[in-house]
Amino acid sequence: MFHAAHASRRAAALDTGEPETAPATPRATTPASAAGGRNSPSPPGREPSGETGRDPFFDNAKYLAIVLVAVAHAWEPVMDGSRAARALYMIVYTFHMPAFILVSGYFSRSYQGRPRQLRRLLTGIALPYAVFEVAYSLFARWSGHNPDQPVTLLDPYYLTWFLAALFVWRLTTPLWRIVRRPLPVALAIAVAAALTPGIGADLNLQRVLQFLPFFVLGLALGPEHFQMVRRPEVRLMSLPLLAATAALAYWAAPRVGLDWFFRSSSIQEIGVPWWQGVAMVLGLFGAAVVLTAVFLAWVPARRTWMTSLGAGTICGYLLHGFLAKAGDWLGFFDANPWLGGPVGLVVLSAGMAVAVTLLCTPPVRRLLRPVTEPELRWAFRRDVSDLRPGDR
């Protein structure tokens, strides 16, 4: 963890996509408020996270979301024999990445493409994408899974697609600030993408466009919306909703293909009529928003043992994929079929949760800092508009 105020703000930005500076805005939407910074007003029932001034609610949410991402990845090789596991997988995949993307959009509200923000975009997103895209491609070759796996930055491999998508979404942020009805426009783009089978694999554009509405929704949210889902009545209403969701997912598990949840295929490629596909795309968006609200309703608002781990979720996200793929490609799951049973799924889930927790710890974060949080001052011109008054 950083102890200096400037360093803590920088870490918050890298983990969630918050630009480092922003113009003066109303109190409810200041960048400091968005980041839970030192000068941000703390909503009722929420306290600043120690000396760093980070908002513990968002760090807790990021940590819990990355645990769900990692556990769901661990289920993939063993869930085919279990209807219950497939149903849980569908529930988690409905909202875990939308929640992550929505929070990323929320922390991108002050992005305006200024030189300092562009440098942060290159060092905090583009560089990690390039490094881990190469690393995962070489790992696929080394493991023997795909000896001919090409090393290219144009076709994101496995989980690196999110960094490529975040790079594109962030660049479009100023456009969404001037659109009168940004969310309906983003939904229209997502539906149009789902109806276009020829988009291709470059930058995984199909996913970039289909997940776009969640980023745009995050841009439109304010602190008051996150306070709203923290109300006791929302938690109370979420219980029967979760029960109904579980029942629906169990019914749908053998009937609904998983491609809908990955959002990397067009409606034509999935093989359903266009009108049914459009209804599915819009229905999944609504379900993802509702389940994201339910998820956020149960996120602790105060500082807990997981709060400090929320600052290292970028490390947990980028590294846990090596564990999941190694277990699959090197035959660990095939050699242990018991992992597909109820006890095995619990053990596997707990093991992956512990692993990703360790990957989010400060020592790992410090180790990866040259890749995930580099300064690279030598690589950029020093723009006069970014100088502090004392430097002139």
UniProtKB/TrEMBL annotation:
Biased composition (Low complexity): 1-13, 19-40
Residue span(s) of domain Acyltransferase: 56-357
GO MF, any single term: acyltransferase activity
Matching InterPro entries: Acyl_transf_3_dom (IPR002656), Nod_factor_acetyltransferase (IPR052734)
Chain residue ranges for the region called Disordered: 1-54
Membrane-crossing residue ranges in chain numbering: 57-75, 87-108, 120-138, 158-176, 183-199, 205-222, 234-253, 273-298, 305-323, 343-361
Pfam families assigned to the protein according to its UniProt record, in alphabetical order: Acyl_transf_3 (PF01757)
Keywords: Acyltransferase, Membrane, Transferase, Transmembrane, Transmembrane helix
Name this protein carries in UniProt: Acyltransferase family protein
